[in-house]
Structure formats: C-alpha cells, structure tokens
Specification:
The chain is an alpha+beta fold and 576 residues long. It contains 18 helices and 22 strands. Helix 4 packs across helix 5, helix 11 packs antiparallel against helix 13 and helix 17 packs antiparallel against helix 18.
Length: 576
C-alpha cells in the first residue's frame, strides 16, 4: 500500500457511507478490507455478483463411510500434542489424540479418556482420574496411566527439560508429582492450589509411551512421530501429511467411543481465507472458517449451513520488548506503546476489515470470560492528536523525512503476520498508514503461518507481530503474559516481564475463590491496559460454514478447534 494514499478520517467516513449505500457483500468479494478501502480512495472499485440460494439442514439416519474435507489457510507445524503451540496443529491433533477431558461447546468439562471428572482432595491439591476400561491406541496397545504420566512428564519432569513444550512454564511450576497406582488410575498432585488445572491442562492429547518412551528429550523434539504419528488415541489415525497441501487421516476402529462413521477426515491447506470460502461454495471442501467479507454471499448458498458465535479469541499485535534485539529499544517506553494504539481507529478496522463480525477490545480477557472487565481504568480510544502528543513528549521528533527519531534512532520497524489471512493482511496495511500519519515507518511483511509461530515461540527476532490467540474456559492468561512463559517454546514471545503482573497472575491461580480471582483479574486488566505491551485490537467471532451433506458437527465458543467431542459422530448423507 502506498503511503501517499492517506487514511484520513474524512476518507474513512466517506468509505463507511459508501458501504451503507452498497451491499458489503457486493463490495470486496475477493479483497481484504484495507484493499477495498484503498480501491475506494483510488476510484477503482470493482463490483461482483453475489450467489443466490437458501440454507438447508438435512436430518436422516447416520450412515457409515465417506469422507470430510476441512479447509483452512494455515498449515500445521507438529502433530505432537505437547509440542504444539498453534491452533492449526491443535485442530488436527484433536482429531487424532484425546485428552483426559474435553469441552462441550459452552465450556463445560466432560470426560474423554477419563471415565468421569476427577475426584479432587479437600485441600485442592490432588486430582484422581480413573481411565475408561479397555482403552486402546490405534495399534491395539492399551492406553494406561503410564501413558498419561509420560505425556505430562514431557512438560514438567526435569529429565525432559529440553523438550520444547509451551506447557512447561506452568506445569513445571505447579505439578509436584504424578502417581500411577494401577493401569487405570492417575493421581496428579500440585505444588499449591492451581485453579485452572482442569480447564486448561487436563485436555492434552495422550501420547504413546511405548513409541516415544525410549527417546531422550532432544530426540523427542525432532522425532518422526511429530510429523507422522504411527499411533494415535483419538477418533482418527494418521495416514499422510503433504506439507503445504493437506493432512489425511483415516478411521480409528479402536476408538473408545466407537469407530467413527467416516472413512477419512482430510485437513486441506488453501492459499487464503477467501479461497476457503470459495471452496465451501463450490463444494471442494465441506467445512471451513468463513472470511467475514464473504459472510453475506455465503449465507445465501443453499449447500452451506452457516453458524456464528462468540469465541474466546482475540487478534492482537505485540512489540519486541527485548532491549538486546534490534527493535527492542523502540518500545521500552510505555508512551510509545500507548501512542501507537491511540493512532489506530479500531472501530473502523472492525467495520471495514471484519464487516462488523467482531468488537473493539478494551481488555486482555475475552468477553466470554467470567473475569472480563469491559472498562479498565485506562481506556485507549482512537485519538491521533493524543498519539502525536505522547510521542512528542517522549522525545520522538519528526525529521525532514517526516519520520520520528530520538537520539539518532528512527521509529522504524517491520510488522509480520501470516500470509493468507486476509483480515490480518489488511490490518497491517491500515496500521502502516495510520502510523505513517503520525511519523512512524512500519513495513508489513507476510510469512507462512508455521514460520510466524516459530518467530513467536522460539526465534523471536521480530520487530512487531500480529496474530490471534484462543483461550480456554478459565480466565487464566498467564501463558501469554507471565514472565515464566518467556522460556523457549512459551507463548510469551514478546518477552513481557513485569513483577506486578506476575504477582497478580500467581495470586489468581492459587485461589479457588471465584470472587477473589475475579478482582485479581480486574486489577491485572487495569495494569495491562496501562502498560500495553501487546495491544488487543478486537475480539473475534467464530464463523463456520458446513456443507449440508455433513451432519453431526456442533461448533460453539469452546470447541471450534482441538476440543471437538463430536468429531467421531460426524457423517455424510451421501456416504462419499
């Protein structure tokens, strides 16, 4: 996007009036919101026809056979449940590996490999799980308590300290021991009360000790199993991963809940979010997330059933906070971080880029959380003058080229996000222009999703990254914001470290008093709205399209990705 195409307030207002006069569906069928806005400014608007039709639902007796193709625009990184740190990988892992527990779509915990919810000791420190009888892996070997213990050891036991697990920061701190008095009993003791243990940590896919147990930590990090698991515990078993194209899975006849109806489940990787929506229309894929810009067009397609629902997901960007990295010195001052957020008109981003399918975020807790605070003490809204005043006051003065500098250092950096996500691509363009207007040079850069995740959890040489994050039912946000999760493999890739934040998060984790926890999370949200180490732009909504030949899906707020207890019961009406 050329910097000369100014995204001023008047232009946005005219753009909004234009969208009111013309259908949003007709305008921008294949481009992102920012591209549409720039096309509008340039007078080069192309109108595209919308498809017609109505949504239908079929209900008949389930039949065995056939396949489902699920499309997405992100390839996976790993199929090891204790190494995974991204939703694409987790989504496929959830098809092949079950945890002790699972979620209903409303966030209620339900048993999976465990026969029931665990018994918890009166002091809240001990959880006793009983496994279902006759559990088997896909190769026919029994699933026992030893497999459960081994899986968790990968993220808490010192002998596996070299395993690059994003779970390590929390589990190594809070798990004291795991005992297996018999093959069907698992006793997990925590070092102290750990309120979110069940909701956040009892769902990891259980791995086969008889396959991985003889490996060292270093060997597990690079094991062939991670990309081609020979044994699974979930509804489907691995067949093949064609990188950049698709992952093919087949029915697991040994699945504890009964063999799935489907012969195959295929996860197909597509170039971008618009391609996913288009292939839903054509029937080339059966299930997929819907591009918000295509929502109106797709809901009129008779062969696709649509669903939209609130989700514990937000889209945010994070600053490089490591002062030793090239961009780190730019973002040490809170005033700079706040100024950049003041410069973004997030209401117009939600409207123009997401077509209203989302809400502006004022918090680091999603609205689905019972600990969500709608109006924290510091409330940053679009204010260009405030943004410039903060930068002026912090000593960042505009030079002859219009770019701000301080002590010879220019306020200039690169922003990365994953190619194919049209909304994020558009957001980077709008962020580039908005920040250019206050004297900041920010250059967008698109990389593949697996590389983006690697940048966040391991490489960490980025300047600024833009990504989404999906939470669980519990309001614990320490995976993203606690300093212990800056460790290699952890989600806190921006290296945010703050003693007050750590204290509030730790106190909230170690009390079962919901009222007290809520007040602690309120304090934490106030702190984060002031510090703004990684500003949240918006809270997303979940939008899925499902071909009407596919029955038995049950998408909702807490089971759109890896936690789908309904996967094994999905079937197709044509048996194909």
């Amino acid at each position: 996007m050329s910097r000369e195409e100014g995204a001023d307030d008047g232009g946005f207002a005219q753009f909004e009036q234009f969208l009111e006069a013309w259908s949003r569906r007709d305008f921008l069928k294949r481009a992102g919101g920012a591209a549409a806005y720039m096309a509008f400014l340039g007078g080069a608007v192309e109108f595209l026809d919308a498809c017609a039709g109505t949504s239908t639902t079929t209900t008949t007796t389930p039949k065995k056979g056939g396949h489902v193709v699920e499309g997405n625009f992100s390839d996976i990184r790993t199929l090891n449940s204790m190494l995974s740190s991204d939703t694409a990988s987790n989504q496929v892992i959830g098809l092949m590996f079950d945890g002790l527990l699972n979620y209903r779509k409303n966030g209620d915990l339900i048993p999976a490999l465990a026969a029931d919810l665990p018994k918890t000791s009166s002091d809240g420190l001990t959880y006793t799980f009983k496994l279902r009888s006759n559990l088997k892996f896909s190769d026919g070997q029994p699933i026992t308590s030893d497999d459960v213990k081994f899986t968790y050891q990968l993220a808490y036991d010192p002998q596996y300290a070299a395993v690059s697990s994003p779970r390590r920061g929390d589990l190594s701190k809070y798990i004291a021991s795991i005992d297996t008095p018999d093959p069907q009993t698992v006793v997990i003791k925590t070092t102290q009360v750990f309120a979110p243990f069940l909701a956040n940590h009892a769902l990891y896919g259980i791995l086969p000790k008889h396959v991985l147990g003889s490996m060292t930590a270093a060997q597990i990090n690079t094991a062939d199993f991670n990309t081609a698991p020979s044994v699974t515990s979930g509804a489907f078993k691995f067949v093949k991963w064609d990188k950049g194209q698709q992952v093919t899975m087949a029915r697991n006849d040994n699945y504890w809940a009964g063999a799935p109806y489907l012969d195959q489940w295929i996860y197909k990787v597509l170039p971008d979010s618009v391609a996913v929506t288009n292939q839903l229309k054509t029937g080339e894929i059966d299930i997929g997330p819907v591009d918000p810009g295509q929502f109106d067009a797709l809901k009129t397609t008779s062969t696709v059933a649509m669903s939209e629902f609130p989700v514990p997901t937000f889209t945010f960007y994070a600053y490089q906070l490591d002062p030793s990295k090239s961009a780190g010195p730019l973002f040490q001052d809170k005033a700079v971080r706040q100024a950049l957020l003041y410069a973004l008109n997030r209401d117009q981003i939600v409207s123009a880029v997401y077509f209203g399918h989302g809400t502006v975020a004022n918090s680091v807790e999603p609205p689905t959380s019972w600990a969500y605070k709608d109006k924290p003490t510091t409330l940053i809204k679009f204010d260009k003058a405030k943004a410039e005043s903060l930068l002026d006051g912090a000593g960042w003065a505009k030079g002859a080229d219009g770019i701000r500098a301080k002590n010879g250092l220019k306020l200039k950096f690169t922003m990365i996000t994953n190619a194919g996500n049209k909304q994020r691509e558009s957001m980077l363009q709008i962020m580039q222009q908005s920040w250019h207007d206050i004297g900041v040079e920010a250059t967008p850069s698109l990389i593949q999703f697996p590389q983006l995740v690697s940048q966040i959890v391991s490489i960490r040489t980025f300047d600024v990254f833009l990504v989404g994050f999906n939470w669980m039912q519990d309001p614990d946000v320490s995976p993203l914001y606690h300093s212990r999760n800056t460790a290699a493999g952890g989600f806190n890739g921006a290296l945010f470290k703050n003693d007050q934040a750590d204290t509030l998060l730790d106190q909230a984790l170690t009390t079962l008093d919901k009222t007290k926890r809520k007040q602690l999370y309120f304090q934490f949200q106030d702190l984060m709205s002031d510090l703004e180490p990684s500003p949240v732009i918006l809270f997303n909504t979940g939008i899925y399209g499902v071909n009407t030949r596919v029955q038995g899906t049950d998408f909702g707020p807490f089971n759109q990705f890896q936690n789908r207890p309904w996967n094994h019961a999905t079937w197709v009406t044509d048996g194909k």
